[in-house]
Amino acid sequence: MAKVVRKPGTVLYPMPTVLVSCGTGERANIITLAWAGTLSSSPPVVGIGVRPSRHSHGLIKDVGEFVVNLPRADQLKWADYCGMVSGRDEDK
Hints:
By secondary structure, the protein is an alpha+beta fold.
């Protein structure tokens, strides 16, 4: 079978683990999420799911924005760490 070449797209597949940075200044934080996905290709829209009990939820709500980061394979131990430690207790 010949190689199939497709145009670039705005898809996150398979569903990756993402690091979401949020907040500002002294209140900056990063959270590890498995609930992220493409909501629209045009315009490009990515959606995330953050429980209201999470520290980052309040930061995102207050600031109104966040950044979705896709970790490389060599960063997975840090992604795991950021998912186990709360920003309420530790500066991540």
